[in-house]
C-alpha cells in the first residue's frame, strides 16, 4: 500500500467517476483502475462496485475511506512539521481542545508566540467522546476541556481557567409564548442537542431535566456544539448549552437564561500529564502565568 494508491482512492470516493479521477490525477483511466485493483488485492476485499455509470463504495470501502483520510492527513502534517523545522522552527506541541475553550486557547497561543514564535503548535478541535478517548490514550501534550471530562483520571495536572455554567437557549417566539422560568411550560417543547456520542454534555443535560421531572424531547442532534444555537435561532427547538456559546452570538432570535442548579456548573480546565519536551515546558509556563493565580 502506498500513498499514491490512497490518494487515488480518496479522489475516486469524491468523484465516483473513473474518468474524472483520472483527469484530476493526471493519469489514464486504466492507471486509476490498476491502483484501485492493487489496493483491493492487498486488503483482500472490494472497496467499490460499479452500478451503471456510477461508482459506489462498499461497506468496507466506507470504513477504509476514514482511515485513508487519516493517513493522508498525518502524512501532510508530518511533511509540514519537518519542513518548518528545516526552515528554523523549533519544538512542537500537540493540543486537543473542545470548541467552548477557544478563548483560553487563543490567549495561550498569543502569549506563547510573543516569546517563542518558532514553536509549532498543532491543534485538533473535537467533541466530548473523542476528546476523552485522546485523554485516556494520552495522545496530546495539553488538553483544553471541561471538568467532567477529567473525572477519575490519575496523573494529570489541571488548571481551572474559568468557572461558567450551562444555560437555556431559547428562540424569541418561545419566550413570548411561555414562562421560561417554569420548566413545566418547557418540558413538552422540542429540544435540539449535541450528538449523544458526546456523553459528558448529554449526561449533564439529562441530569438537569430529570431533576425537573421530565426527559427532553430531542428532535435533532448536531455533531458540533456551535451548530446547536443555529438550530435554536431557526426555531427548530430549545437547548441547554455551555454559556460561552452565547459569546459573540450572531443569532438575533436567540435569548439565553440562567439555570439555577448546581448541576449546571461548568469549569474550564487545561490539563497535561507530562512535559515531553522543552516546547511543552514553555507552554506550561504560559498556562501558569495566565491562570495559576486564580487557582490559589
UniProtKB/TrEMBL annotation:
Transmembrane segments: none annotated. The keyword DNA-binding applies. Residues 1-58 form the HTH lysR-type domain. Gene3D superfamilies: 3.40.190.290, Winged helix-like DNA-binding domain superfamily/Winged helix DNA-binding domain. PROSITE patterns: HTH_LYSR. The keyword Cytoplasm does not apply. One of its GO terms (molecular function) is DNA binding. Coiled coil: none annotated. One of its GO terms (cellular component) is cytosol. Belongs to the LysR transcriptional regulatory family. This is LysR family transcriptional regulator. It comes from Emergencia timonensis.
Amino acid at each position: 500500500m502506498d500513498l499514491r494508491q490512497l490518494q487515488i482512492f480518496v479522489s475516486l470516493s469524491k468523484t465516483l467517476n473513473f474518468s474524472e479521477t483520472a483527469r484530476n490525477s493526471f493519469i489514464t483511466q486504466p492507471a486509476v483502475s490498476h491502483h484501485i485493483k492493487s489496493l483491493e488485492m492487498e486488503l483482500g476485499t472490494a472497496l467499490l462496485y460499479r452500478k451503471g455509470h456510477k461508482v459506489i463504495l462498499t461497506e468496507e470501502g466506507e470504513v477504509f475511506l476514514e482511515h485513508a483520510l487519516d493517513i493522508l492527513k498525518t502524512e501532510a502534517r508530518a511533511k509540514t512539521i519537518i519542513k518548518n523545522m528545516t526552515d528554523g522552527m523549533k519544538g512542537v506541541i500537540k493540543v486537543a481542545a473542545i470548541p467552548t475553550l477557544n478563548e483560553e486557547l487563543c490567549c495561550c497561543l498569543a502569549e506563547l508566540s510573543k516569546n517563542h514564535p518558532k514553536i509549532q503548535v498543532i491543534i485538533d478541535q473535537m467533541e466530548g467522546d473523542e476528546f476523552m478517548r485522546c485523554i485516556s490514550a494520552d495522545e496530546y501534550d495539553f488538553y483544553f476541556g471541561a471538568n467532567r471530562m477529567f473525572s477519575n483520571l490519575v496523573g494529570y495536572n489541571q488548571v481551572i481557567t474559568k468557572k461558567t455554567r450551562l444555560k437555556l437557549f431559547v428562540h424569541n417566539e418561545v419566550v413570548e409564548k411561555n414562562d421560561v422560568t417554569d420548566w413545566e411550560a418547557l418540558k413538552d417543547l422540542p429540544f435540539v442537542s449535541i450528538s449523544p456520542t458526546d456523553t459528558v454534555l448529554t449526561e449533564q443535560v439529562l441530569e438537569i431535566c430529570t431533576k425537573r421531572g421530565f426527559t427532553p424531547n430531542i428532535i435533532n442532534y448536531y455533531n458540533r456544539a456551535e451548530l446547536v444555537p443555529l438550530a435554536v435561532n431557526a426555531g427548530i427547538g430549545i437547548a441547554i448549552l455551555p454559556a460561552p456559546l452565547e459569546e459573540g452570538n450572531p443569532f438575533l432570535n436567540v435569548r439565553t437564561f440562567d439555570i439555577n442548579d448546581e448541576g449546571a456548573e461548568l469549569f474550564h480546565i487545561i490539563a497535561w500529564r507530562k512535559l515531553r519536551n522543552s516546547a511543552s515546558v514553555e507552554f506550561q509556563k504560559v498556562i501558569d502565568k495566565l491562570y495559576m493565580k486564580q487557582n490559589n
